Hints:
Layout: E1 11-17, H1 21-31, E2 36-42, E3 53-59, E4 65-71, H2 96-100, E5 103-107, H3 111-122, E6 130-133, E7 137-143, E8 149-155, H4 161-178, H5 185-213
Parallel strand pairs: 1-4, 5-8
Antiparallel strand pairs: 1-5, 2-3, 3-4, 6-7, 7-8
Helix pairs in contact: 4-5
Amino acid sequence: MTRNEHRVKGVDHAAFPTFDPVATVRFYRDTLKFPVVHSICAAGWGPENHPDFIHFFFDIGNDDRIAFFYYFGHEPAGDPNLRGDAWARLPEGTPEFFANSRHLAIHVDSEEDLLEYRRRLDESRWPCEMQVMHETIESVYTHDPNGYMIEITRSLRPVTPQEDLDAELTIEALCDVASGPEPTMDKLLTRKAELIVERADGWETARRAREAESPQAVTP
């Protein structure tokens, strides 16, 4: 590959903040039928005073995703009756973590490609601001001339079916907790544990049925 060759492969995910995760899940998962494919429960991440948050993703086809951040305890800012989205209405003093949750992530195939884009950024007026190893991806970040955060990312490994199931449980627990008063990460994790206990017998019954139909099958 040449140094000037175009290497990106489209959008990995587009991310936005949400103040209403329940309505967001209802719209994307239940109305549009976009499956929940991944979620991250982030407790104690980031600098001091950074709130707990959940980052959750919907499949929009072709391995592309749209994602949302829900920050526990961070209330809507600005006049909700104004035109514009959650970001456009944000006033001065809005926390940096919330502003940066709105970003575009662009996927590349390899570490070589990721480092090539970091080189291009570092040699420009908009150098890489951070390089982060997440659960399943590695990313470099910068802000474009308009102030939008841009992420270039590569996959470290595939997301497993077990993680997809974990995401489904996480989002169901989130909807239950966020529908009630004062949602917190502790309440979400407690509710998720309750769902696991509630469904364990059903999963075991389904596993035995699969084994009976196909004794040689390897179950997850």
